[in-house]
TrEMBL record:
Pfam (any one): PRISE
Protein name (record): NAD dependent epimerase/dehydratase
InterPro entries assigned: NAD(P)-bd_dom_sf (IPR036291), PRISE-like_Rossmann-fold (IPR055222)
SUPFAM superfamilies xrefs: NAD(P)-binding Rossmann-fold domains
Domain PRISE-like Rossmann-fold: 65-355
Amino acid sequence: MDKRALIIGATGIVGRNLFEHLQTHGDWSIAGLSRGRTPAPAGMESITADLTSASSVADALKDQEFTHVFFTAWSRQATEAENIRVNGAMVSNVLDALGPSGAITHAALVTGLKHYLGPFEAYAKGNVPITPFREEQGRQPVDNFYYEQEDRLFDAAGQFGFGWSVHRPHTIIGYAVGNAMNMGVTLAVYATLCKATGEPFVFPGSAAQWNGLTDMTDARLLARQLEWAATSPMARDEAFNVVNGDVFRWKWMWERIAGYFGIEPAPFDGETRPLENRMQHAGKAWADIAARHALAEADIDKLASWWHTDADLGRPMEVLTDMSKSRKAGFLDYQSTPDAFFELFDRLKAERIIPA
C-alpha cells in the first residue's frame, strides 16, 4: 500500500502546514478529518466527523485504510478533567476505527511543552524541570490531557502493532485562520491595530519572558519532523521535542516585529498587560480595517487568540527546549525564528489577512 496519510485537525496550524509539506514532498495520498467548520486546503480529500463521537468517527472512516495517522487537533474544555476525557477519547475513537484494518504503520501525536509545565489550570505548579526541557525528564504529578492522549496512543499501538511518535513543540508560528493557538497571526493583528489606531505596541507579557531566553517552533519545521518520524526507523516509538534551533529574548524580538510593521515598540516597564483585557473592544476597529483594505476576514475572533498568546508571553519562568534527542536520531533541520515570523507576515499579506 502506498503512503496514505490521515491528518486529524487538517485545517489547524499544524495540520494545514503538514498537508502542504506532504503534498509537495514525497509520494503521499492525503486526507484530512475535521469537524468541517473551516474549509479544507485545496487538493485535500476532506472527511467530516465529530471526533468526540466514536460512532461518528467510525461511520466516517468505514472502509477507509491509512498507513499513517497524524493527530494535530485538540478540543479545549472548561476543566482539565474534561480535557482528559474528551481529548483522550478523540485519539481512541480514530485508532479504534482504523486499527483493525492492519494498514496503519505509524501514528504521530502532537502535544507540546505543557508536558513539562503542566496544563493551564495547574500551570507550573509542580516541580518544573530544569531548563532546557529534555524528553527524559518525564511527566509532572498533575492531571494532564497530553498524558492521557499518549497512553491511548501507546495502548492502540500495542493492540494493533503499529509504530508511534510524540512531538512536543514550543509556541508554534505558522499560517492558519480560525485557530485557537496562534501567536504569529495574533501578533500580526495586534500590530496592525496599533498601526491603524495609534495605540502603543505594548509587550503584553511578563518580565521573565521579556528578559529571559526562549525559543519557538515553525509549523513548517514541525511538519518536516512529523514526516521524518513517520518514515525513519530511528524515530519509531519515541517522543521528541521540536523547536527551530535558535534562541532569543523578547526584548530583542519585539523591536524587530515592530520594525516589520513600521511602528515603534513601547518601552517595557516590567508590568504584565494581557491582550485579552485590552482587546475586548477591538472587533469594530478590525472590521473597519478589513473594510478599508478589502481583507479576507473581518471577524477578529477568527484570527486572534488573545488568551493563548497571553498564556505564552505571561509565563513567570524561563521556557527553553533541548533538541539533542532529535539531532542524535538524524533530524537536523533548522529554522530562523525571525524569518519564521516575517515569512508568516508576508503570507498573511499575500492572502489578504492583514493589509499589504
